[in-house]
Amino acid sequence: MKPEEILRIVDAIHRDKNIDKEIVFQAIESALVTALTRQYGEQSQISITINRVDGRLTGTRDDVEIDTQELSGRIGAQTAKQVIIQKIREAERDAIHDEYEEQIGQMVSGVVTRCEGAAATVSLGATETILPRSEQIPGENYHPNERIRATIFEVRKVGSRVKIILSRIRPQLVQRLFEQEIPEIADGVIEIRAISREPGYRSKVAVISSDARVDCVGACVGVRGNRIKNIVEELGGERIDIVRWSDDLQVLVPNALQPAEVDEVILCQMLGRGIVLVREDQLSLAIGRRGQNVRLASKLCGWDIEIMTREELDQQIERAVTGYSSIAGLDESVAEKLVGEGFLSYDDLSVIEPGDLMEIGGLSAEAVDAIVLEAEKRASLAEVAAADERRKQREQDRITKATADADAADLLAASLIAVAATDLPAEQAVLPGAVAAEGGVGAPVGDM
């Protein structure tokens, strides 16, 4: 290879593959060393250097300078070719890996090129990525040529290729969409402090404003909800609650549980738990469908949140004091102290730090070990009893449903008998219990 040819090759690879010139020079040097080693044997000590300015080759073999004519001849042009190609491919792979590894957590926009099974292949220009089923929003389906947005979740080297995994279920996607749709967040006036998400169903986003004149919640919602609407549409209709952040948990927890109204928040520092008291009519709203509202609020605040009414709390306190007092080594005064710290069940007591229990009750290490062991036994028995109760409830629900179905079948049979006994055509007969329509004629069978 002539000096000018080397410089031309390096420059072309640098521009076409976006690989640093130094990496290309090193790859060619390594390839030439490999080629000469094959010729002279493994025992030879060979060194090759390319001048980065003019492309001239210099080298030594066993500390003896190699003739440059030999380096520029057939050996350099042919024998080193495959090694150079391999080195360039490795360099290209490393460059792609480093480029996308820096973008992990960032949002990208790509075009679906094909769908193979449950996974979708997404093109990001010259690079193909994968959006597996496990990282897709439940219920979404993708089609070729469809443009989608996702975050880069994982980048890893696989042989000579780079595997890039996209995700649409991570909280980072919600954050990037907020940054894109809401200028105040991009400018740093509004900050997203926390996000909790159940993809495809609901997310809670806690925000705070550094400017008292800017309403962080109102700015995120936008005029007539136009800003948040765009984000919801991108997430396939996922519901988004915007929460006003506060460093005070007494303020943050009620905010996180909106739209439910909270009466009181009791923080149990030892357990990292917040007991939230609500009225009876707010109980189901605070808990949410299948516990979703309280679960997302817990993730947002970083504390376990337990929802109950004042009456339920009083009952739990009474049961806990009575139960703890029945454990050998725990008197009623210590039981009351434990309840005051938020320990309301045997399960809570079974995970208490021994040092904390020793401090609260003035107990020895041996006494604490015995108390914790007894609490673990009682917690296991309580869990078995609860599972049995749930089984009985499911059985009762099944019986109730079967009874209701049988009653409905009896009602239908009675109706058909009534129709058969009347002189009216069946389509004009009135089913038992049907509300008479205007004019005194009941709803026809065919309309029921």
Index terms:
single chain; 448 residues; alpha+beta; N Utilization Substance Protein A, Chain:P, domain 4; OB fold (Dihydrolipoamide Acetyltransferase, E2P); DNA polymerase, domain 1; five-stranded antiparallel beta sheet; three-stranded antiparallel beta sheet; 17 helices
List the helices and strands and how they pair.
Layout: H1 3-17, H2 21-40, E1 46-50, E2 57-61, E3 64-65, H3 68-72, H4 74-79, H5 81-101, E4 107-116, E5 119-124, E6 127-131, E7 147-158, E8 161-167, H6 171-181, H7 183-186, E9 190-198, E10 202-209, H8 216-221, H9 226-234, E11 239-244, H10 249-256, E12 264-268, E13 273-277, H11 283-287, H12 292-301, E14 304-308, H13 310-325, H14 332-340, H15 346-350, H16 354-361, H17 365-421
Helix pairs in contact: 2-5, 6-9, 10-12, 13-14, 16-17
Describe this structure in words.
The chain has 448 residues and is α+β, with helices and mostly antiparallel strands. Among the domains are: 3-97, NusA, N-terminal domain (N Utilization Substance Protein A, Chain:P, domain 4, 2-Layer Sandwich), CATH 3.30.1480; 103-167, OB fold (Dihydrolipoamide Acetyltransferase, E2P) (Beta Barrel), CATH 2.40.50.140; 311-393, Orthogonal Bundle (DNA polymerase, domain 1), CATH 1.10.150. It is built from 17 helices and 14 strands. The chain has a five-stranded antiparallel beta sheet with strand order 6-5-4-7-8. Strands 1-2-3 form a three-stranded antiparallel beta sheet. The protein has a three-stranded mixed beta sheet with strand order 9-10-11, sandwiched between helices. Strand 2 and strand 3 form a beta hairpin. The longest helix is centred in the last third of the chain and has 57 residues, at 365-421. The chain is elongated, with a radius of gyration of 36 Å. It starts with a helix and ends in a 27-residue tail after the last helix.
